[in-house]
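Notebook p. 47: complex prediction with alpha-D-glucopyranose.
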Amino acid sequence: MHDLTWWQHAVIYEIYPRSFQDSNGDGIGDLNGILRRLDYLVLLGVDAIWISPIYPSPMADFGYDVADYCGIDPIFGTMADFDRLLAEAHRRGLKVILDFVPNHSSDRHPWFQKSRSSRHNPKRDWYIWRDQPNNWLSHFGGSAWEFDETTGQYYLHSFLKEQPDLNWRNPALKAAMFNALRFWLRKGVDGFRVDVMWLMIKDDQFRDNPPNPGYRLGQAPHSHLLPVYNSDRLEIHGLVAEMRAVVDEFPDRVLIGEIYLPIPQLMTYYGVDLRGANLPFNFQLLQCAWSASAVAEVISEYQQALPDGAWPNWVLGNHDNARIASRIGARQARVAAMLLLTLPGTITMYYGEELGMCNVPIAPDQVQDPFEKNEPGLGLGRDPERTPMPWDASTAGGFTNGWPWLPLGDEHEIVNVAALERDDNSILRLYRNLIQLRQTHPVLVNGKLEGAVAEQNVLRYERTSDLHPTNKDPFAGTPALHPTNKDPFAGTPALHPTNKDPFAGTPARERLLVLLNMAAEAAQISVKSGTVLISTHLDREGTKVGSQVKLRAGEGLVISLEQSSGGPAVR
Ligand code: GLC
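Predicted complex, C-alpha cells below:
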C-alpha cells in the first residue's frame, strides 16, 4: 500500500520575496505583494510556495543573516501580514514552506551581542570562538575567522563576518533553535527549507583543511581548500534526525535540506531509516552539462543511488544560480521545463522560470549582492538571477510603484506575465499545461522511470505506472490502491485549482514516452505507436505517431504509448 503525502506530489515554487511583488512602493517585494499574486500561482498550478527568509535582518546577506528567528522584518510586513498570507494560501490549497537558517545568525542577533560581550556570558558558547584561527575559508571570500577586540578571540563565520556561525554542539542553542521551528509549525507553516544543511557541524578539533589539487582559476576562492573539516561531518546526521523529529511533532510537514554534495554523499542526508531530511535538494540539473548524454547519466546515477523508499526530487534553478534560460537559451528552456515536470518525485521551480526569465545584467554601481562586492568580477554575484518579477511591460514591470531594488532589464518589455498570458504558445502556457499534465497523469509523479538514454542528442525515457520505488502498480484496479486514498485537497474543494482529484480517472496502466531534443537540429526517432500528449511547441497535442517521430530543433514530446505496443521501447 503506497501513500503519497502532499509534498511528494507537489510542485514547489520558490519566491525570493524581495523580488516578487512590492505592495508599498519602497521598491522591495513584501508579504502583501505575495498575497496579491496567490491567484496567479493557483492558476499556474503549483502546490506550495517556499519563501526565502522574511525574518528581521540587517540584510547584509538579504535575509540570510537573521536577527530574530521568530519575527518578520518590517521591509516584508508584519506578523499579522504573515498570518493573513498563510491563511489565504491555505484557503487556496497552497502550502507554505519557510526558509530556516540554522548555520549562522546575524551579528546583530541579541544572542551574538551577548556572546561577544564577555568570555563568561552564558551565550558565549552559542557561537564558535577560538584563540587562534585555522585555515578555513569563508564562502564569500577571505578567512572564515574574524578577530573581536572586546574579548580578544576569533569567531567563525562560514559566510560574511556579519553572519557568525552558531554552535550546534551547545544543547541550549539547539533547544532555542528547535523552539523557533516549533513557533512557526504551531502557526501552521507546512515545512522548512534548511539553509546550508551540510555545513552545520564542524570538526571539534578544528583541523586545517587540505589544499584542493583540482582548484582552477576563476572558481570561488574558498575552493582553494577541500572542505574536509568544516562540511559534511559525520555528526550532522544525528542533528538532522533531531530536527526532523521536531518537524514530525506536527502532522504532514516537510523538511528539505539545501545540500551541495556529490550524489553518494547527498543520499546520506535521507538519514538512517529515512529519518533525516524528507528531501535533500537534488541540484544535479543545476550543475550538469546540457546534453542528452550528460542529463541521461545524471538521471540514472541519481535513481540508482536513491536509498530504498527515499523520495526523489528535482530542481532547475534557485536564487544562488544562473537562471536556466540564460544557461541554455530560450528554446532549450522549454525542453528543460518538460524535463523537470516529467521526472519522478517532488519538483521545485524558481519564480520567473515559467516566463523563461533570463539573468539581468547588473552594472557595477547597481551591485547589491555581498558575494559580488567581496569578490568582484569573477561572475559569482547572484543579483542577475534575483531581479524583480516582470508582471507587465510598464517601466517597473508592475512589480512596484517605486524604484525597484534591482533593475528589471530591457527584456521584460516582451517577457512579462501579461504578454505571455495573451500568447497561446508561450512558455508560461507550456508550464501550466505541463503542471496540469503532471496532476492528471500521476504516473509522472510516482511511476517508474525506465531508460534515460541519449539517442543522438535526444534524451529518451519512459514513465510507467509501476510504483516508484517499490515496483508496484499504484493504479491497478481499484480505488483501494489509490495513492493517497483521499483527495489531497479535500476540505478546499471550491478553491482547488482544478477542483478535481488529481488521481481520479487515471487509466489502469500507463506508459508515457518522453523525448527531449536537446540539439539545435531536427531529429528522427523510432518509437512505438501512441498519441502526443504535449509538445514543447504546444501545437501537436492529440496527434498520432507511428514507428518514427520527427522532433524539431529543441522540441520535446510526451507520448502516451498504446498498451498493445509490447515491452519498453527503450533500448
Ligand atoms: C545559502 C543561501 C544563500 C546564502 C547562504 C548563506 O546557500 O541559499 O543565498 O547566501 O546560504 O546563508
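Notes: Residues 465 and 509 are 6 Å apart (CA to CA). Residues 11-104+170-437 form a domain with the TIM Barrel fold (CATH 3.20.20.80).
Next step: compare against the earlier run before touching the bench.
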